[in-house]
Specification:
The complex is a heterodimer of chains A (about 375) and B (about 220).
Chain A: E1 25-29, H1 36-43, E2 55-56, E3 59-60, H2 66-71, E4 73-77, H3 88-92, H4 94-98, H5 103-116, H6 133-145, E5 151-155, H7 163-180, E6 183-188, H8 191-197, E7 200-205, E8 209-214, H9 216-221, H10 226-232, H11 236-240, E9 256-258, H12 263-273, E10 277-281, E11 287-292, H13 293-296, E12 311-312, E13 316-318, H14 324-333, E14 338-342, E15 348-353, H15 354-366
Parallel strand pairs in A: 1-6, 1-7, 4-5, 5-6, 9-10, 13-14
Antiparallel strand pairs in A: 2-3, 7-8, 10-11, 11-12, 14-15
Helix pairs in contact in A: 5-6, 14-15
Chain B: H1 3-8, H2 10-44, H3 49-61, H4 64-75, H5 82-107, H6 111-119, H7 124-154, H8 167-175, H9 179-207
Helix pairs in contact in B: 2-5, 2-7, 2-9, 3-5, 4-5, 5-7, 6-7, 7-9, 8-9
The chains are: A alpha/beta (about 375), B mainly alpha (about 220).
Chain lengths: ~375, ~220
Protein backbone atom coordinates (compact mmCIF):
# COMPACT_ATOMS: atom_id res chain seq x y z
CA UNK A 1 0.00 0.00 0.00
CA UNK A 2 0.97 3.61 -0.48
CA UNK A 3 0.07 6.68 1.56
CA UNK A 4 0.46 10.19 0.25
CA UNK A 5 -0.38 13.26 2.23
CA UNK A 6 -1.64 16.36 0.44
CA UNK A 7 1.00 19.05 0.15
CA UNK A 8 3.87 16.59 0.28
CA UNK A 9 5.52 15.32 -2.88
CA UNK A 10 7.12 12.21 -1.41
CA UNK A 11 4.74 9.52 -0.13
CA UNK A 12 4.80 8.71 3.60
CA UNK A 13 4.62 5.05 2.67
CA UNK A 14 5.75 3.77 -0.67
CA UNK A 15 4.38 0.50 -2.07
CA UNK A 16 4.70 -1.26 1.25
CA UNK A 17 3.92 -4.93 1.23
CA UNK A 18 4.01 -6.81 4.48
CA UNK A 19 2.53 -10.07 5.63
CA UNK A 20 2.04 -10.46 9.35
CA UNK A 21 1.75 -14.07 10.50
CA UNK A 22 -0.92 -15.06 13.04
CA UNK A 23 0.09 -15.40 16.65
CA UNK A 24 3.44 -13.68 16.26
CA UNK A 25 4.90 -10.34 17.24
CA UNK A 26 5.87 -8.26 14.24
CA UNK A 27 7.94 -5.22 15.15
CA UNK A 28 8.05 -2.22 12.83
CA UNK A 29 11.24 -0.30 13.50
CA UNK A 30 12.91 2.64 11.83
CA UNK A 31 13.87 6.28 12.22
CA UNK A 32 11.16 8.85 12.88
CA UNK A 33 9.12 9.75 9.83
CA UNK A 34 9.70 6.39 8.14
CA UNK A 35 6.01 5.54 8.07
CA UNK A 36 5.96 2.84 10.75
CA UNK A 37 3.21 4.49 12.81
CA UNK A 38 1.30 5.33 9.63
CA UNK A 39 1.40 1.64 8.70
CA UNK A 40 0.18 0.63 12.14
CA UNK A 41 -2.72 3.05 12.06
CA UNK A 42 -3.85 1.80 8.69
CA UNK A 43 -4.56 -1.57 10.27
CA UNK A 44 -7.40 -0.15 12.39
CA UNK A 45 -8.34 2.47 9.80
CA UNK A 46 -7.25 5.46 11.87
CA UNK A 47 -5.60 6.31 8.54
CA UNK A 48 -6.75 5.02 5.16
CA UNK A 49 -4.23 4.16 2.44
CA UNK A 50 -4.08 6.22 -0.75
CA UNK A 51 -3.50 3.06 -2.76
CA UNK A 52 -3.54 -0.58 -1.86
CA UNK A 53 -5.47 -2.84 0.42
CA UNK A 54 -5.19 -4.38 3.84
CA UNK A 55 -6.60 -7.78 4.62
CA UNK A 56 -7.33 -9.08 8.08
CA UNK A 57 -7.63 -12.82 7.62
CA UNK A 58 -9.40 -12.73 4.26
CA UNK A 59 -11.46 -9.62 4.91
CA UNK A 60 -10.61 -6.37 3.14
CA UNK A 61 -10.77 -3.94 6.04
CA UNK A 62 -12.01 -1.11 3.81
CA UNK A 63 -15.29 -3.03 3.70
CA UNK A 64 -15.67 -3.05 7.49
CA UNK A 65 -17.24 -0.26 9.55
CA UNK A 66 -14.27 1.43 11.32
CA UNK A 67 -15.87 1.46 14.78
CA UNK A 68 -16.70 -2.26 14.56
CA UNK A 69 -13.29 -3.10 13.16
CA UNK A 70 -11.56 -1.22 15.99
CA UNK A 71 -13.48 -3.00 18.73
CA UNK A 72 -11.85 -6.22 17.53
CA UNK A 73 -8.33 -4.78 17.55
CA UNK A 74 -6.54 -3.91 20.78
CA UNK A 75 -4.61 -0.63 20.73
CA UNK A 76 -1.87 0.52 23.10
CA UNK A 77 -0.15 3.89 22.76
CA UNK A 78 2.81 5.70 24.25
CA UNK A 79 1.14 7.63 27.05
CA UNK A 80 -1.43 4.89 27.69
CA UNK A 81 -4.23 7.36 26.85
CA UNK A 82 -6.31 6.17 29.79
CA UNK A 83 -9.59 7.96 30.48
CA UNK A 84 -8.76 10.24 33.44
CA UNK A 85 -12.40 10.38 34.56
CA UNK A 86 -12.87 6.64 34.83
CA UNK A 87 -11.61 4.16 37.40
CA UNK A 88 -9.04 1.57 36.42
CA UNK A 89 -11.66 -1.19 36.20
CA UNK A 90 -13.92 0.93 34.01
CA UNK A 91 -11.01 1.92 31.81
CA UNK A 92 -10.16 -1.73 31.27
CA UNK A 93 -13.83 -2.58 30.72
CA UNK A 94 -14.28 0.08 28.01
CA UNK A 95 -14.51 -2.17 24.96
CA UNK A 96 -16.49 -4.95 26.71
CA UNK A 97 -19.10 -2.32 27.67
CA UNK A 98 -19.10 -0.93 24.11
CA UNK A 99 -19.86 -4.38 22.71
CA UNK A 100 -22.65 -4.85 25.22
CA UNK A 101 -21.33 -7.08 27.98
CA UNK A 102 -22.93 -5.10 30.79
CA UNK A 103 -21.08 -3.32 33.54
CA UNK A 104 -20.81 -6.17 36.06
CA UNK A 105 -19.38 -8.67 33.60
CA UNK A 106 -16.98 -6.03 32.27
CA UNK A 107 -15.73 -5.30 35.78
CA UNK A 108 -15.18 -8.97 36.55
CA UNK A 109 -13.21 -9.24 33.33
CA UNK A 110 -11.23 -6.11 34.29
CA UNK A 111 -10.09 -7.75 37.51
CA UNK A 112 -9.02 -10.90 35.69
CA UNK A 113 -6.94 -8.77 33.37
CA UNK A 114 -5.38 -6.81 36.22
CA UNK A 115 -4.15 -10.15 37.55
CA UNK A 116 -2.91 -11.12 34.13
CA UNK A 117 -0.80 -7.99 33.62
CA UNK A 118 0.55 -8.01 37.18
CA UNK A 119 -1.53 -5.25 38.77
CA UNK A 120 -2.90 -5.44 42.29
CA UNK A 121 -6.73 -5.66 42.07
CA UNK A 122 -6.87 -3.24 45.02
CA UNK A 123 -6.25 -0.57 42.40
CA UNK A 124 -9.48 -1.35 40.53
CA UNK A 125 -11.33 1.61 42.04
CA UNK A 126 -8.51 4.11 41.69
CA UNK A 127 -8.19 6.70 38.96
CA UNK A 128 -5.35 6.72 36.41
CA UNK A 129 -3.55 9.75 37.88
CA UNK A 130 -3.06 7.82 41.13
CA UNK A 131 -0.89 5.24 39.33
CA UNK A 132 2.75 5.43 38.23
CA UNK A 133 3.60 5.64 34.55
CA UNK A 134 4.50 1.96 34.43
CA UNK A 135 1.28 0.93 36.13
CA UNK A 136 -0.73 3.10 33.73
CA UNK A 137 0.95 1.39 30.83
CA UNK A 138 -0.01 -2.02 32.28
CA UNK A 139 -3.60 -0.79 32.50
CA UNK A 140 -3.28 0.28 28.86
CA UNK A 141 -2.25 -3.26 27.90
CA UNK A 142 -5.05 -4.77 30.01
CA UNK A 143 -7.57 -2.44 28.37
CA UNK A 144 -6.39 -3.47 24.91
CA UNK A 145 -6.79 -7.14 25.82
CA UNK A 146 -10.17 -6.78 27.54
CA UNK A 147 -12.43 -8.06 24.78
CA UNK A 148 -9.87 -10.72 23.83
CA UNK A 149 -9.13 -9.34 20.35
CA UNK A 150 -6.98 -11.55 18.12
CA UNK A 151 -4.91 -8.56 17.01
CA UNK A 152 -3.04 -6.09 19.18
CA UNK A 153 -1.49 -2.85 17.87
CA UNK A 154 1.17 -1.25 20.04
CA UNK A 155 2.52 2.18 19.10
CA UNK A 156 5.75 2.87 21.01
CA UNK A 157 3.99 1.59 24.12
CA UNK A 158 6.99 1.64 26.43
CA UNK A 159 8.88 4.70 25.18
CA UNK A 160 7.71 7.11 27.87
CA UNK A 161 8.74 5.13 30.96
CA UNK A 162 12.14 4.88 32.60
CA UNK A 163 14.55 2.13 31.47
CA UNK A 164 14.01 -0.18 34.45
CA UNK A 165 10.23 -0.07 34.13
CA UNK A 166 10.56 -0.44 30.36
CA UNK A 167 12.57 -3.64 30.78
CA UNK A 168 9.99 -5.07 33.15
CA UNK A 169 7.13 -4.15 30.79
CA UNK A 170 8.96 -5.80 27.89
CA UNK A 171 9.49 -8.96 29.95
CA UNK A 172 5.81 -8.89 30.88
CA UNK A 173 4.82 -8.60 27.22
CA UNK A 174 7.01 -11.59 26.31
CA UNK A 175 5.45 -13.60 29.12
CA UNK A 176 1.90 -12.60 28.08
CA UNK A 177 2.61 -13.30 24.46
CA UNK A 178 3.95 -16.78 25.26
CA UNK A 179 0.62 -17.41 26.97
CA UNK A 180 -1.85 -15.61 24.70
CA UNK A 181 -0.28 -15.88 21.22
CA UNK A 182 -1.93 -12.74 19.85
CA UNK A 183 -1.02 -11.29 16.52
CA UNK A 184 0.91 -8.25 17.73
CA UNK A 185 2.12 -5.36 15.61
CA UNK A 186 4.58 -3.33 17.65
CA UNK A 187 6.05 0.00 16.56
CA UNK A 188 9.28 1.28 18.10
CA UNK A 189 12.28 3.40 17.17
CA UNK A 190 14.44 1.45 19.61
CA UNK A 191 16.25 -1.34 17.80
CA UNK A 192 17.16 -3.11 21.06
CA UNK A 193 13.49 -3.29 21.95
CA UNK A 194 12.65 -4.54 18.47
CA UNK A 195 15.16 -7.35 18.78
CA UNK A 196 13.97 -8.25 22.24
CA UNK A 197 10.20 -8.41 21.71
CA UNK A 198 9.92 -9.33 18.03
CA UNK A 199 9.40 -12.74 16.47
CA UNK A 200 10.01 -10.88 13.23
CA UNK A 201 11.36 -7.39 12.74
CA UNK A 202 10.54 -5.13 9.80
CA UNK A 203 13.20 -2.45 9.35
CA UNK A 204 11.88 0.67 7.61
CA UNK A 205 13.93 3.08 5.55
CA UNK A 206 13.30 6.83 5.54
CA UNK A 207 10.79 7.45 2.76
CA UNK A 208 8.45 4.67 3.78
CA UNK A 209 9.95 1.56 2.23
CA UNK A 210 10.99 -1.72 3.81
CA UNK A 211 14.68 -2.51 4.11
CA UNK A 212 14.46 -6.00 5.59
CA UNK A 213 11.98 -8.30 7.33
CA UNK A 214 13.47 -11.18 9.28
CA UNK A 215 13.61 -12.85 12.67
CA UNK A 216 15.88 -10.83 14.96
CA UNK A 217 18.67 -13.38 15.10
CA UNK A 218 18.88 -13.53 11.32
CA UNK A 219 18.73 -9.76 11.13
CA UNK A 220 21.75 -9.51 13.41
CA UNK A 221 23.64 -12.23 11.58
CA UNK A 222 22.84 -11.13 8.04
CA UNK A 223 21.73 -7.55 7.54
CA UNK A 224 20.87 -7.17 3.84
CA UNK A 225 22.74 -3.92 3.34
CA UNK A 226 24.76 -1.15 4.99
CA UNK A 227 21.62 0.75 5.98
CA UNK A 228 20.27 -2.16 8.03
CA UNK A 229 23.70 -2.92 9.49
CA UNK A 230 24.13 0.71 10.47
CA UNK A 231 20.68 0.86 11.94
CA UNK A 232 21.28 -2.23 14.04
CA UNK A 233 24.37 -0.58 15.48
CA UNK A 234 27.62 -2.15 16.60
CA UNK A 235 27.94 -5.25 18.77
CA UNK A 236 25.70 -7.21 16.45
CA UNK A 237 27.70 -10.38 17.01
CA UNK A 238 27.59 -10.12 20.78
CA UNK A 239 23.91 -9.24 20.76
CA UNK A 240 23.16 -12.22 18.60
CA UNK A 241 24.45 -14.46 21.40
CA UNK A 242 21.15 -13.55 23.14
CA UNK A 243 19.35 -16.00 20.90
CA UNK A 244 21.43 -19.03 21.88
CA UNK A 245 20.85 -20.80 25.20
CA UNK A 246 23.53 -21.07 27.86
CA UNK A 247 22.52 -24.64 28.63
CA UNK A 248 24.73 -25.86 25.76
CA UNK A 249 27.82 -24.84 27.76
CA UNK A 250 29.94 -27.49 29.39
CA UNK A 251 30.15 -26.82 33.15
CA UNK A 252 33.15 -27.75 35.28
CA UNK A 253 32.60 -28.61 38.96
CA UNK A 254 36.34 -28.85 39.86
CA UNK A 255 36.83 -25.27 41.09
CA UNK A 256 33.91 -25.55 43.54
CA UNK A 257 34.88 -25.84 47.21
CA UNK A 258 32.60 -25.62 50.25
CA UNK A 259 33.49 -22.82 52.68
CA UNK A 260 34.15 -25.31 55.55
CA UNK A 261 37.18 -26.67 53.60
CA UNK A 262 40.52 -25.90 55.30
CA UNK A 263 43.25 -23.98 53.53
CA UNK A 264 45.42 -27.11 53.47
CA UNK A 265 42.74 -29.20 51.74
CA UNK A 266 42.00 -26.41 49.31
CA UNK A 267 45.65 -26.21 48.28
CA UNK A 268 45.71 -29.94 47.62
CA UNK A 269 42.48 -29.71 45.61
CA UNK A 270 43.87 -26.84 43.54
CA UNK A 271 47.12 -28.65 42.86
CA UNK A 272 45.32 -31.82 41.74
CA UNK A 273 42.98 -30.02 39.36
CA UNK A 274 45.41 -27.36 38.26
CA UNK A 275 42.92 -24.59 39.00
CA UNK A 276 44.35 -21.10 39.71
CA UNK A 277 41.04 -19.92 41.27
CA UNK A 278 38.55 -21.67 43.56
CA UNK A 279 34.84 -20.79 43.87
CA UNK A 280 33.83 -20.89 47.54
CA UNK A 281 30.25 -22.01 48.20
CA UNK A 282 28.16 -21.95 51.36
CA UNK A 283 26.36 -25.02 52.79
CA UNK A 284 23.39 -24.40 50.47
CA UNK A 285 25.83 -24.35 47.52
CA UNK A 286 25.17 -20.65 46.96
CA UNK A 287 28.30 -18.94 45.61
CA UNK A 288 30.27 -16.81 48.08
CA UNK A 289 33.21 -15.65 46.01
CA UNK A 290 36.43 -16.47 44.17
CA UNK A 291 39.75 -17.11 45.95
CA UNK A 292 43.05 -17.02 44.07
CA UNK A 293 45.32 -19.96 44.96
CA UNK A 294 48.28 -17.56 45.22
CA UNK A 295 46.61 -15.86 48.20
CA UNK A 296 46.13 -19.14 50.06
CA UNK A 297 49.89 -19.40 50.71
CA UNK A 298 49.71 -16.44 53.08
CA UNK A 299 47.12 -18.09 55.34
CA UNK A 300 47.48 -20.54 58.28
CA UNK A 301 46.75 -24.01 56.92
CA UNK A 302 44.13 -24.83 59.58
CA UNK A 303 41.86 -21.90 58.73
CA UNK A 304 38.70 -22.64 56.74
CA UNK A 305 37.92 -20.91 53.46
CA UNK A 306 35.01 -19.11 55.11
CA UNK A 307 37.64 -16.79 56.58
CA UNK A 308 39.72 -16.52 53.42
CA UNK A 309 39.92 -13.15 51.62
CA UNK A 310 37.68 -14.11 48.69
CA UNK A 311 36.39 -11.68 46.13
CA UNK A 312 32.76 -11.39 47.10
CA UNK A 313 29.89 -11.66 44.65
CA UNK A 314 30.47 -14.41 42.15
CA UNK A 315 29.24 -13.53 38.67
CA UNK A 316 26.54 -15.97 37.74
CA UNK A 317 24.17 -16.90 34.94
CA UNK A 318 21.09 -19.11 35.03
CA UNK A 319 21.88 -22.24 33.10
CA UNK A 320 18.27 -23.11 32.28
CA UNK A 321 17.01 -19.74 31.11
CA UNK A 322 19.92 -17.42 30.29
CA UNK A 323 21.60 -16.98 26.93
CA UNK A 324 25.21 -17.29 25.84
CA UNK A 325 25.33 -13.49 26.01
CA UNK A 326 24.61 -13.53 29.75
CA UNK A 327 27.19 -16.27 30.28
CA UNK A 328 29.82 -14.34 28.33
CA UNK A 329 29.04 -11.18 30.25
CA UNK A 330 29.37 -12.95 33.60
CA UNK A 331 32.65 -14.47 32.47
CA UNK A 332 34.09 -11.10 31.46
CA UNK A 333 33.09 -9.54 34.78
CA UNK A 334 34.40 -12.38 36.92
CA UNK A 335 37.87 -11.84 38.46
CA UNK A 336 38.76 -15.44 37.65
CA UNK A 337 37.66 -15.31 34.01
CA UNK A 338 35.16 -18.01 34.85
CA UNK A 339 31.44 -17.63 35.53
CA UNK A 340 29.23 -19.73 37.77
CA UNK A 341 26.21 -21.39 36.21
CA UNK A 342 23.39 -21.57 38.76
CA UNK A 343 19.99 -23.26 38.93
CA UNK A 344 16.67 -21.48 39.56
CA UNK A 345 17.40 -21.31 43.29
CA UNK A 346 20.82 -19.75 42.71
CA UNK A 347 22.79 -22.90 43.65
CA UNK A 348 26.00 -23.39 41.72
CA UNK A 349 25.95 -26.19 39.16
CA UNK A 350 29.45 -25.59 37.83
CA UNK A 351 31.64 -22.96 36.23
CA UNK A 352 32.33 -22.12 32.64
CA UNK A 353 35.31 -20.43 31.05
CA UNK A 354 36.37 -18.61 27.89
CA UNK A 355 37.43 -21.97 26.43
CA UNK A 356 33.96 -23.43 26.93
CA UNK A 357 32.32 -20.28 25.55
CA UNK A 358 34.50 -20.42 22.48
CA UNK A 359 33.39 -24.01 21.83
CA UNK A 360 29.72 -23.03 22.19
CA UNK A 361 30.11 -19.99 19.95
CA UNK A 362 31.88 -22.03 17.28
CA UNK A 363 29.04 -24.54 17.38
CA UNK A 364 26.58 -21.71 17.01
CA UNK A 365 28.40 -20.25 14.00
CA UNK A 366 28.71 -23.66 12.40
CA UNK A 367 24.99 -24.23 12.86
CA UNK A 368 24.14 -20.81 11.43
CA UNK A 369 22.42 -22.59 8.52
CA UNK A 370 19.45 -23.35 10.75
CA UNK A 371 18.51 -20.13 12.38
CA UNK A 372 16.93 -20.17 15.79
CA UNK A 373 14.20 -18.06 14.13
CA UNK A 374 13.37 -15.92 17.10
CA UNK A 375 12.58 -18.97 19.18
CA UNK A 376 15.55 -18.32 21.42
CA UNK A 377 15.28 -16.57 24.71
CA UNK A 378 16.44 -12.98 24.53
CA UNK A 379 18.37 -11.92 27.60
CA UNK B 1 -28.63 50.56 59.26
CA UNK B 2 -32.16 50.00 60.49
CA UNK B 3 -32.25 46.29 61.39
CA UNK B 4 -35.84 46.64 62.58
CA UNK B 5 -36.90 47.46 59.01
CA UNK B 6 -34.92 44.52 57.65
CA UNK B 7 -36.58 42.04 60.03
CA UNK B 8 -39.97 43.65 59.56
CA UNK B 9 -39.81 43.15 55.78
CA UNK B 10 -38.06 39.80 55.71
CA UNK B 11 -40.79 38.13 53.67
CA UNK B 12 -40.73 40.83 51.00
CA UNK B 13 -36.91 40.70 50.85
CA UNK B 14 -36.94 36.93 50.46
CA UNK B 15 -39.38 37.02 47.58
CA UNK B 16 -37.29 39.71 45.83
CA UNK B 17 -34.21 37.54 46.31
CA UNK B 18 -35.99 34.48 44.92
CA UNK B 19 -37.12 36.46 41.89
CA UNK B 20 -33.57 37.80 41.42
CA UNK B 21 -32.22 34.26 41.52
CA UNK B 22 -34.78 33.04 39.03
CA UNK B 23 -34.08 35.87 36.60
CA UNK B 24 -30.32 35.20 36.91
CA UNK B 25 -30.26 31.41 36.65
CA UNK B 26 -32.56 30.91 33.65
CA UNK B 27 -30.03 32.80 31.44
CA UNK B 28 -27.14 30.71 32.79
CA UNK B 29 -28.93 27.45 31.99
CA UNK B 30 -29.97 28.66 28.54
CA UNK B 31 -26.48 30.04 27.96
CA UNK B 32 -24.95 26.64 28.75
CA UNK B 33 -27.36 24.90 26.38
CA UNK B 34 -26.26 27.25 23.60
CA UNK B 35 -22.55 27.35 24.52
CA UNK B 36 -22.00 23.56 24.43
CA UNK B 37 -22.98 23.06 20.78
CA UNK B 38 -21.21 26.30 19.78
CA UNK B 39 -18.08 25.14 21.62
CA UNK B 40 -18.23 21.69 20.05
CA UNK B 41 -18.54 23.19 16.58
CA UNK B 42 -15.70 25.61 17.29
CA UNK B 43 -13.40 22.77 18.31
CA UNK B 44 -14.36 20.50 15.44
CA UNK B 45 -14.03 23.20 12.78
CA UNK B 46 -11.39 25.64 13.96
CA UNK B 47 -12.49 28.40 11.56
CA UNK B 48 -15.85 28.66 13.36
CA UNK B 49 -14.27 29.79 16.60
CA UNK B 50 -12.88 33.28 15.78
CA UNK B 51 -16.19 34.66 14.43
CA UNK B 52 -18.13 33.05 17.31
CA UNK B 53 -15.72 34.51 19.83
CA UNK B 54 -15.90 37.98 18.24
CA UNK B 55 -19.69 37.86 18.17
CA UNK B 56 -20.01 36.92 21.84
CA UNK B 57 -17.51 39.60 22.86
CA UNK B 58 -19.25 42.30 20.80
CA UNK B 59 -22.59 41.40 22.35
CA UNK B 60 -20.99 41.57 25.78
CA UNK B 61 -19.87 45.12 24.99
CA UNK B 62 -23.42 46.32 24.24
CA UNK B 63 -24.89 48.04 27.31
CA UNK B 64 -27.76 46.06 28.78
CA UNK B 65 -30.06 49.05 28.70
CA UNK B 66 -29.58 49.32 24.93
CA UNK B 67 -30.58 45.67 24.53
CA UNK B 68 -33.64 46.17 26.74
CA UNK B 69 -34.73 49.11 24.66
CA UNK B 70 -34.19 47.07 21.51
CA UNK B 71 -36.28 44.19 22.85
CA UNK B 72 -39.15 46.16 24.42
CA UNK B 73 -41.10 46.45 21.14
CA UNK B 74 -41.08 42.65 20.89
CA UNK B 75 -41.35 41.41 24.45
CA UNK B 76 -42.60 44.47 26.37
CA UNK B 77 -42.24 45.57 29.96
CA UNK B 78 -45.57 44.18 31.13
CA UNK B 79 -47.39 40.95 30.43
CA UNK B 80 -46.25 37.33 30.11
CA UNK B 81 -43.17 37.93 27.99
CA UNK B 82 -41.73 40.76 30.05
CA UNK B 83 -39.17 38.47 31.73
CA UNK B 84 -37.76 37.70 28.30
CA UNK B 85 -36.77 41.35 27.90
CA UNK B 86 -34.30 40.68 30.70
CA UNK B 87 -33.54 36.98 30.15
CA UNK B 88 -32.52 37.29 26.49
CA UNK B 89 -29.75 39.88 27.03
CA UNK B 90 -28.46 38.10 30.13
CA UNK B 91 -28.36 34.80 28.23
CA UNK B 92 -26.33 36.42 25.47
CA UNK B 93 -23.93 37.88 28.05
CA UNK B 94 -23.21 34.46 29.59
CA UNK B 95 -22.00 33.24 26.20
CA UNK B 96 -18.97 35.52 26.40
CA UNK B 97 -17.65 33.45 29.32
CA UNK B 98 -19.25 30.07 28.64
CA UNK B 99 -18.25 29.54 25.00
CA UNK B 100 -14.48 30.06 25.58
CA UNK B 101 -14.71 27.80 28.63
CA UNK B 102 -16.42 25.01 26.72
CA UNK B 103 -13.78 25.36 23.98
CA UNK B 104 -10.89 25.36 26.48
CA UNK B 105 -12.44 22.42 28.31
CA UNK B 106 -12.72 20.36 25.15
CA UNK B 107 -9.20 21.33 24.15
CA UNK B 108 -7.96 20.16 27.55
CA UNK B 109 -8.76 16.58 26.55
CA UNK B 110 -5.31 15.03 26.01
CA UNK B 111 -4.65 13.91 22.43
CA UNK B 112 -3.73 10.33 23.48
CA UNK B 113 -7.10 10.07 25.25
CA UNK B 114 -8.97 11.23 22.17
CA UNK B 115 -6.97 8.84 20.00
CA UNK B 116 -7.38 5.83 22.21
CA UNK B 117 -11.14 6.47 22.42
CA UNK B 118 -11.32 6.46 18.62
CA UNK B 119 -9.10 3.40 18.39
CA UNK B 120 -11.35 1.49 20.78
CA UNK B 121 -14.33 2.08 18.54
CA UNK B 122 -16.08 5.14 19.96
CA UNK B 123 -18.03 6.98 17.28
CA UNK B 124 -17.86 10.79 17.21
CA UNK B 125 -20.99 11.49 19.28
CA UNK B 126 -20.35 8.76 21.83
CA UNK B 127 -16.78 9.99 22.25
CA UNK B 128 -18.05 13.53 22.82
CA UNK B 129 -20.63 12.54 25.42
CA UNK B 130 -18.74 9.80 27.26
CA UNK B 131 -15.19 11.06 27.07
CA UNK B 132 -14.67 14.64 25.96
CA UNK B 133 -17.48 16.46 27.78
CA UNK B 134 -16.82 14.74 31.14
CA UNK B 135 -13.13 15.66 30.90
CA UNK B 136 -14.11 19.25 30.01
CA UNK B 137 -16.42 19.52 33.05
CA UNK B 138 -14.02 21.26 35.48
CA UNK B 139 -13.17 24.01 32.99
CA UNK B 140 -16.83 24.47 32.06
CA UNK B 141 -17.70 24.80 35.75
CA UNK B 142 -15.13 27.54 36.14
CA UNK B 143 -16.99 29.47 33.43
CA UNK B 144 -20.36 28.71 35.00
CA UNK B 145 -19.25 30.23 38.29
CA UNK B 146 -18.21 33.50 36.65
CA UNK B 147 -21.35 33.63 34.50
CA UNK B 148 -23.63 32.92 37.46
CA UNK B 149 -22.20 35.60 39.73
CA UNK B 150 -22.23 38.17 36.93
CA UNK B 151 -25.79 37.29 36.04
CA UNK B 152 -27.03 37.61 39.64
CA UNK B 153 -25.54 41.06 39.84
CA UNK B 154 -26.75 42.15 36.38
CA UNK B 155 -30.39 41.36 37.12
CA UNK B 156 -30.68 44.51 39.23
CA UNK B 157 -30.18 46.64 36.10
CA UNK B 158 -33.54 45.27 34.99
CA UNK B 159 -35.09 47.62 37.52
CA UNK B 160 -34.68 50.31 34.83
CA UNK B 161 -37.53 48.56 33.02
CA UNK B 162 -39.30 47.73 36.27
CA UNK B 163 -38.19 44.12 36.51
CA UNK B 164 -34.95 43.90 38.44
CA UNK B 165 -35.38 41.59 41.41
CA UNK B 166 -33.36 43.01 44.28
CA UNK B 167 -32.66 46.08 42.13
CA UNK B 168 -36.02 47.37 43.34
CA UNK B 169 -34.41 48.06 46.72
CA UNK B 170 -31.88 50.45 45.13
CA UNK B 171 -34.40 52.63 43.29
CA UNK B 172 -36.90 52.51 46.13
CA UNK B 173 -34.27 53.31 48.76
CA UNK B 174 -32.96 56.16 46.62
CA UNK B 175 -36.40 57.69 46.17
CA UNK B 176 -37.22 57.42 49.87
CA UNK B 177 -33.73 58.53 50.96
CA UNK B 178 -33.59 55.36 53.03
CA UNK B 179 -30.02 53.92 52.89
CA UNK B 180 -30.90 50.76 54.87
CA UNK B 181 -32.90 49.51 51.94
CA UNK B 182 -29.95 50.04 49.58
CA UNK B 183 -27.55 48.29 51.96
CA UNK B 184 -29.97 45.41 52.32
CA UNK B 185 -30.10 45.10 48.52
CA UNK B 186 -26.33 45.03 48.22
CA UNK B 187 -26.02 42.56 51.09
CA UNK B 188 -28.59 40.20 49.64
CA UNK B 189 -27.01 40.22 46.17
CA UNK B 190 -23.65 39.37 47.70
CA UNK B 191 -25.19 36.58 49.80
CA UNK B 192 -27.04 35.23 46.77
CA UNK B 193 -23.89 35.27 44.66
CA UNK B 194 -21.83 33.52 47.34
CA UNK B 195 -24.51 30.89 47.91
CA UNK B 196 -24.85 30.16 44.20
CA UNK B 197 -21.09 29.95 43.84
CA UNK B 198 -20.84 27.56 46.76
CA UNK B 199 -23.56 25.40 45.25
CA UNK B 200 -21.67 25.24 41.96
CA UNK B 201 -18.47 24.24 43.76
CA UNK B 202 -20.42 21.46 45.45
CA UNK B 203 -21.96 20.36 42.15
CA UNK B 204 -18.57 20.24 40.52
CA UNK B 205 -17.25 18.17 43.40
CA UNK B 206 -20.11 15.71 42.91
CA UNK B 207 -19.72 15.62 39.14
CA UNK B 208 -15.97 15.01 39.06
CA UNK B 209 -15.13 12.22 41.51
CA UNK B 210 -11.79 11.59 39.77
CA UNK B 211 -10.49 15.00 40.83
CA UNK B 212 -11.27 14.35 44.48
CA UNK B 213 -8.90 11.48 45.16
CA UNK B 214 -5.41 12.42 46.28
CA UNK B 215 -2.48 12.45 43.95
CA UNK B 216 -0.49 9.33 43.24
CA UNK B 217 -0.71 6.85 46.09
CA UNK B 218 2.41 5.30 47.57
CA UNK B 219 3.57 2.41 45.37
CA UNK B 220 2.44 -0.98 46.61
CA UNK B 221 5.36 -3.00 48.01
CA UNK B 222 6.80 -5.46 45.53
CA UNK B 223 5.30 -3.59 42.61
CA UNK B 224 8.12 -2.30 40.50
CA UNK B 225 6.05 -0.92 37.69
Amino acid sequence: MTKRYPGSAAPALNALELEIPDGQTMVLVGPSGCGKTTSLRMINRMIDPTEGKIFLDDQDIQQVDPAKLRRGIGYVIQHAGLFPHRTIEDNIGTVPVLIGWGKQKARRRARELMDLVGLDTDMARRYPHQLSGGQQQRVGVARALAADPPVLLMDEPFSAVDPIVRTSLQDELLRLQAELRKTVVFVTHDVEEAIKVGDRVAVFRPGGTLAQVDPPSRLLARPLDDYVAGFLGFDRGIRRLSFFPARTLQLDADPLVPDRTTVAEARTRAKESGQPWLLVTDPQRLPRGWVPIAKLGELPVTRTLAEAPFEAGAHTFRVATDSLRAALDATILSPSGQAAGVDEAGRVLGVTSYDQLLIAIRAMTAGAGHEPGGEGEPA
Amino acid sequence: MDWGWVFGNIGELASLAARNLYLAMIPVVLGLLIAVPLGVLSVRWGWVYPPVLSATSVIYAIPSLALFVFLIPFTGVVGTTRDLTLIIPLTLYTLATLVPNVVDGLRSVPEPVRQSATAMGFGGLRRLVRVELPIATPVVFAGLRVATVASISLVSVGELIGNGGLGFLFTDGEQRSFPTEIYAGIGLIVILALAADLLLVLLRWLATPWLRSGRRAAPTPGQTA
